[in-house]
Amino acid sequence: MKTLRRATTWIAAVLIAGCAHTPTGPSVMVLAGSGKTIEQFQADDGTCRQLASQEVAKTSGGDVPAQQRYDITYMQCMYAKGHQVPVPGGRPGYNSSPPTSPPPR
User: I need a surface site. Which of 19, 29, 81, 96 has the fewest CB within 10 A?
Assistant: First the structure.
């Protein structure tokens, strides 16, 4: 009986470990910011992917799934670099991008 219980526990642990995965890239869309070249976008994309991977490795576990932590970090990074992050459920034709100049008064 103990052997069967151990085997069952071991199999369950292997199956659970197999379900956990490390993100290999973003699952969200980000568009190049106004006035950004494809080369700038690609450079920023590489930097932000690396940052997101480091964040997931640093904060493993917890209530937020790894892919969601990756995507949040990636989108924040790309937004900070001036790229457009579409807003789910936003107004048609509206997407979020950092302001390029202060709003008029």
Answer: 19
Token match 């969601």: residue?
A: 68
Cα separation of 24 and 74, whole Å?
Answer: 12
> At a CB cut-off of 8 Å and minimum separation 6, what does 28 contact?
71, 74, 75, 85
Contact 65, 56 (CB under 8 A): no
Q: Beta-strand (E) ranges in the chain?
A: 85-86, 95-96
Tens-place pLDDT, residues 54-86: 999 998 778 889 999 999 999 999 999 999 998
| pLDDT for res 97 | 53
User: Is residue 2 assigned to a domain?
Assistant: no
Sign of the Cα torsion 79, 83, 89, 94 reads positive
| Whether the Cβ atoms of residue 87 and residue 94 lie closer than 8 Å to each other | yes
Confirm whether 78 is domain-assigned: yes
Residues in contact with 20: Cβ distance below 8 Å, sequence separation at least 6, in sequence order? 66
